Amino acid sequence: MTESEFELIATYFTERKFKRGDYVVRQGIKVDHTFFVVEGMMKLIFDDESGKEHILSFAMENWWETDYLAFHKRTQATMSLKCLEDTTVICLSFEDYHNLCAAVSKMEHFFLNKATSGHLASQQRILSLLASTAQERYFKLIHNYPSLTKRVSKSQLASYLGLSRETLSRLYKGK
Amino acid sequence: MTESEFELIATYFTERKFKRGDYVVRQGIKVDHTFFVVEGMMKLIFDDESGKEHILSFAMENWWETDYLAFHKRTQATMSLKCLEDTTVICLSFEDYHNLCAAVSKMEHFFLNKATSGHLASQQRILSLLASTAQERYFKLIHNYPSLTKRVSKSQLASYLGLSRETLSRLYKGK
DNA sequence: TTTTACCTGTGACCCATATCACATTTTTCA
DNA sequence: TGAAAAATGTGATATGGGTCACAGGTAAAA
Question: What is the pTM of this model?
Answer without folding.
Answer: 0.95
